[in-house]
């Protein structure tokens, strides 16, 4: 699933490790989600949305 | 679980698995010693024989606990996938070897080794699965 995580991260000057720490997941998890190779669960997607003060639809898109 | 895990659940997994393996070695020595030096009879033979299997079964339960406790869903997914490869690999090898024993008169291998094959396939598959997400 495509997403805007990389740009949202860049806006805040966060590394993948920084985001992983805030989400309480591994850096590999963040990388897998960011590259669209792993789709997060709904609870994790909500957590991401809250962290970026955004909505799930604004972060993730279901277009291939 | 190739390298030292960083999550709390991962560390608990290691702290549980290590003493379980120590208990396995201990039980194995006890069983071997008892079969060589004592003349076990009746039900005691069966109890003694399954003694080393108990910590090994416990190790599978420890993996189950890890999956239940790991809050990182990506890491959980990697472990579940590698367990499926472990199960598939162990069942495939034991099925092939079973037919080899029946039809090609291959030497008998104890079914205990299915457990070992499970871990081998699980261990090999884990880094390969991770490569898919790089």
Q: Can you tell me about this structure?
A:
The complex is a heterodimer of chains A (64) and B (134). With 64 residues, chain A is mostly helical. Chain A has a single domain, classed as 434 Repressor (Amino-terminal Domain) (Orthogonal Bundle), CATH 1.10.260. In chain A, 59% of the residues lie in helices and 6% in strands. Chain A has helices at residues 5-12, 16-23, 27-34, 42-51, 56-59; strands at residues 2-3, 60-61. A two-stranded antiparallel sheet of chain A has the order 1-2. Chain A is globular and about 25 Å long. Chain A starts with a strand and ends with a strand. The model of chain A has no long low-confidence stretch (mean pLDDT 94). With 134 residues, chain B is mainly α. Chain B has two domains: 1-71; 72-134, no CATH class. Chain B has five helices and no strands. Chain B has helices at residues 8-37, 43-50, 53-69, 73-104, 113-132. In chain B, helix 1 (8-37) packs antiparallel against helix 3 (53-69) and helix 4 (73-104) crosses helix 5. Chain B is flat, with a radius of gyration of 18 Å. The model of chain B has no long low-confidence stretch (mean pLDDT 92). The chains are: A mainly alpha (64), B mainly alpha (134).
Describe what is shown at a glance.
The complex is a heterodimer of chains A (64) and B (134). Chain A has 64 residues and is mainly alpha-helical.
Report mean pLDDT of chain B, rounded to a whole number. Answer: 92
Number of domains as seen in the coordinates of chain B: 2
Assembly state: heterodimer
Structural class computed from helices and strand pairing of chain B: mainly alpha
The strand line-up of the biggest sheet of chain A is 1-2
User: What share of residues are in beta strands of chain A?
Assistant: 5-15%
Share of helix of chain B, binned? over 70%
Q: What ranges of chain A have pLDDT less than 50 throughout 5 or more consecutive residues?
A: none
* Overall average residue pLDDT of chain A: 94
Unreliable sequence segments of chain B: none
Number of strands of chain A: 2
């Amino acid at each position: 699933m495509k997403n805007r995580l990389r740009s949202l991260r860049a806006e805040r000057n966060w590394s993948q490790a920084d985001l992983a720490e805030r989400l309480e997941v591994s850096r590999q998890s963040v990388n897998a989600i960011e590259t669209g190779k792993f789709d997060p669960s709904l609870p994790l997607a909500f957590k991401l949305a809250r962290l970026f003060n955004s909505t799930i639809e604004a972060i993730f898109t279901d277009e291939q | 679980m190739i390298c030292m895990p960083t999550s709390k659940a991962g560390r608990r997994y290691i702290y549980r698995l290590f003493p379980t393996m120590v208990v396995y070695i201990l039980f194995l020595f006890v069983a071997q010693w008892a079969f060589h030096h004592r003349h076990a009879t009746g039900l005691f033979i069966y109890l003694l024989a399954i003694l080393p299997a108990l910590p090994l079964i416990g190790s599978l339960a420890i993996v189950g606990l890890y999956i239940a406790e790991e809050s990182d869903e990506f890491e959980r997914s990697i472990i579940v996938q590698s367990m499926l490869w472990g199960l598939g690999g162990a069942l495939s090898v034991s099925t092939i070897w079973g037919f080899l024993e029946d039809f090609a008169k291959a030497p008998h291998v104890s079914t205990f080794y299915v457990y070992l094959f499970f871990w081998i396939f699980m261990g090999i598959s884990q880094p390969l699965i991770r490569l898919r997400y790089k």
